[in-house]
Structure formats: C-alpha cells, structure tokens
Amino acid sequence: MSTTKTKTRVALVYGGRSSEHAVSCATAAGVLAAIDKDRFEVVPIGIAKDGRWVLGGGDLAALALAPGHVPEVDGDGDVRMPLSTRDRSVVDVAAGGAAAALGEVDVVFPVLHGPFGEDGTIQGMLELADIPYVGCGVLSSATMMDKHYMKGVLSSHRLPIGPFVTLTDRQWATDPEAAIRAASELRFPLFVKPARAGSSVGISRVERPEDLRAAIEVAREHDPKVVIEQGIVGREIECGVLQGRGHEPPRTSLLGEIVVETGHTFYDFEAKYLAENDVVLSCPADLPAGDADRIRAMAAEAFEAAGCEGLARVDFFYTENGEIILNEINTMPGFTPHSMYPQMWLATGMSYPELITELVDLALERRVGLR
Known about the structure:
Domain ATP-grasp: 151-361
Radius of gyration: 21 Å
Family: Belongs to the D-alanine--D-alanine ligase family.
Structural class: alpha+beta
Mean pLDDT: 91
Cofactor: Mg(2+); Mn(2+)
Low-confidence stretches: none
GO molecular function, one term: ligase activity
EC number: 6.3.2.4
C-alpha cells in the first residue's frame, strides 16, 4: 500500500515598498533555485513598489540583481493573504474580479529587506492570522530595524556600541544647525545613515563638518529619521546566528570578514551587490581564537537581548588593540547564495539548501501568538 507524501507549502514573499526592493528580489531568486523541492511546494508572492501583492513566476533570471539589470516586481492580479485564524487560504483576485484559490499555505518565508517588511509590519499581519513565518517576531524586527532603538536595547544589556547621535524629522525641520553642531561633536569621519534602512542604501561617509548637511539630505531621501555614527577604525567582522531548537541556546557560525579592496570608501550598496572583484568575503576570519570565541558569544548574547528568533546576522568592528564593538543586528540579512550569512554557515557546515530547510523547520516548530 503506497502513501502520498504531502509537501509543506511555503509562501515566499519578496519585493516590497522599501529602497531594498531589488535586493529582496535577488534573495527570492536564490531561495527559489535552492529550496528542497521534494519537501516544499513554493508559492511565490511579489510585493510591487506600490504595495500590490501579485503572484510571482518562475523566471529566476528576471529576479536576479546584476550590472545593468535591476529586478522589480510587476504584474496583474491581487493576492490576498488570510487575515483570520479560520484558515490559511491564499486567494488571487484577477482584474475582472474573479477569485482564484491558491490553496492554504503552511508557513510564510518573508525575504523582505527594510521598512514595510523587515520591520515587524508583515510579521504583525501574519500574527493576526496565526500563520507561522520564518524569522524574527514583531518587536525584535521593529527595534532592530530602527538603528536608534537598536542601540538603546544593546547598550541597556551592556553590549559595547560606538558613539552616535539621532536626528528626527522635527529636529531637522526646526533647528538643523543644532543638529549639525551635535553631530560635529563626534570624531570624524562620520557615517550618516537612514535610521530604518539597510543594504547600505542612503549611507554617506563624511570627512568634514561642511559636508554633513548634504549627507543628511541624502539619508532623508530614504528615511526622515537619521542616525549619525562616529567612524570606527577596525576590521568588519560578522557572525551568523540561528535560533536553537526547542529551548536550546542560539547557534553561531564561524566568523566572516569583509575586506573592501578597491573602488569604495566603505562597504556600500554597489560593493555589496554589483562589484565583482572589489570586495573579498573571508570566512573563517583570521582572528585570535580567544577573540573569535568572544565575538561569537557576544553575537549570541545580542541575539537573545534583542529577542530575535529564526535568524540574524550580528556585525562587529574589531580594532587593532583587540577591542570589540557591536555595530548592528540584521534580522533579515542578505540571503542570496553568495551573501555573507549563507557563506558563513556554509563554512560552518550547513549548505544553502540545508539552511533554507532549517529556517522553515524552525518556523514550523515555533508556536504562533504570544511566546
């Protein structure tokens, strides 16, 4: 007597309204190509830049991010996710009003980067419907997306962070000179960043006080709230963290190091996603064993301090005198096959397809609602 094995249905949600739309598309292409198709049936759902949810296709080349090609979600239809706990059925409403049932999904894998996806918004929607999903919950997603609040959480747990100031929209509108004076008290060079963006979008390195105003305006194109950080001279070290199974502690990967060799003053968007030979991603990073152990322990501590679940990448600076400074936590780090997070886990012994499976399994194990 034969039995039919039912595959787990995974809604892969990508694109989104943030400035990291193209990066999310590239991540989706990587996941679609690598996911275990014997275990999982994928329902690809793209979110257009105007917020429309549309049924995605299987053209992986169209989703790839490459020189001369910036992917973007487009298409007709109106995919609607369940908003109650009664069922998990997904429906696609065509332009003429006819509804096509796409069936129930068991879990959602949101590979969204930046605001309106990585910041707790979609996580809250899924919590309303009791749908399991990959990655961090509402609170940790929201606080780690906002660099101002992230630094507050980390410092409250006595984790080492660098000097910074925050500039709100009201402060810039009412007294921009005071804001520039406050930032100028930090030691140059400074890094001016949108408070709630990632992938190095909108970030400027500032060497002189007279260049601050222009850098702030560039950051404000992506977020009215801006964080200005004092530059730290040190190596950029990263650690991948995975939630432990059950009540086990978080797991940490071998450490990775980013070395920007030519053409960039820092690890900017082009260096991350478009440059072929300008950046070297080294894993495992060449560090004294004791310091490597300290960084991995600190990454796990930061993961728990932030209330993270599923996955996160924790970024550090490592100075020439061995000082370790925590830079930030990314709750949905770059996740293409060539991104640092999967590469660190590959070096640790977990392949990209295995990592995808592990994340989906963690999501299915975790109870929904309050936990």
